[in-house]
Design brief:
112 residues; alpha+beta; 2 domains; 2 strands; elongated
Length: 112
């Protein structure tokens, strides 16, 4: 949905790039949407405020498969596009919550 929204904004405005301002869960969702949609060349600025890019500490208490707290899930084994905010560890596979997303992602694109 994020990829489609960015493409719709570009089409509507006639611009070649957009600025994204994200907060909290929107940071992770926005980052994933731009990464998955291969839209980094269409994003001029990506402002991330208070995002859980390395997972949420509160998810340690809820667990990685708690049906009452679905936001704390880990990587879905059947669909890699479904993931929650449980921190990535060697015992719980959730590569979208760790260095892959936060460190390597921003380092590949550089800071502007």
């Amino acid at each position: 949905m994020v990829r489609d929204f960015v493409l719709d904004v570009l089409a509507y405005t006639g611009r070649s790039q957009v600025d994204l301002v994200t907060h909290s869960m929107g940071v992770t969702v926005g980052f994933h949407g731009v990464e998955f949609g291969a839209l980094w060349n269409r994003v001029r600025r990506f402002v991330a405020i208070g995002g859980g890019l390395r997972g949420l500490a509160s998810c340690w208490y809820a667990g990685n498969a708690n049906p009452w707290v679905p936001a704390c899930g880990s990587q879905n084994l059947f669909d890699s596009q479904i993931f929650g905010f449980f921190p990535h560890t060697w015992t719980t596979w959730n590569p979208r919550m760790g260095r892959l997303l936060e460190r390597a992602g921003s380092a590949r694109r550089g800071r502007r």
